Amino acid sequence: MKKKIMYAAIGIIIAIVVISVALIQATSGGANPALDNVAVPQQTLSTLYGIANNYQMANLIGVGAAGNPPLKTGDTTVLKVNGKPAVIYVGADYCPYCAATRWALILALDRFGNFSSLHYMTSSSSDFAQNTATFTFFNSSYSSPYITFESVEELTNVYPYKVLQVPNQLENSTFDAFDLNFSALPADERGGIPFIDFGNITVQDGAEYSPLLINKYSWDTIIGYLKNENSTVAQSIIGNANEFTAQICKAINNSASVCKQQFVKNLE
pTM value? Predict the structure, then answer.
């Protein structure tokens, strides 16, 4: 019995050491896949929230270096879920363009609510921009008085990719209408991810900046750059977040305080 207790204690110590080393590595060099699915510390969530709600910096950046802005769907009726305008995201853990887009989407969502739970993730090690530092919406927790956020991470990040989440009927129908069969998109771009539906009023198909911009950095390095409005990382990610914020403001009829900011007015 004593040996079993001793072995169990050793196992716990080893697990703690492994996680500690992984967290230390997150602050150096590039992204460390050992952090995949590890919960993001509350301090980091708070830091991201603070960056998102630094409106002085957001106004200085405006659209920044973001490109490929969301497209109007032509619909005039706002899609609602649980009585609130819906923001629907469809992506996958392996996807490098989803990896880039999540940074901006998280910052935008933090202006209308907050995440109480997120997990670290890296994009696929066998795809373009391997092991890009990002987060996953799988097992995340988000609340907002303004919107309902629905997310789907369809596949894992390790090849051969396995099914992680299956879109529900609503998520499938919006994806089919405004991605797979959306005439405003070039034929060779339809059916791709990431896909974001902002209340059926506008949609984002694909990323607004290349994942190569952040591919060589760790999470903490990227966050460090986000604090500097002159960095290319901040110009791209916060510019992208500002675009997304303007789309959400359209869907909620500018009812949140952030919608009064000049950067939103310039982008609506």
Answer: 0.90
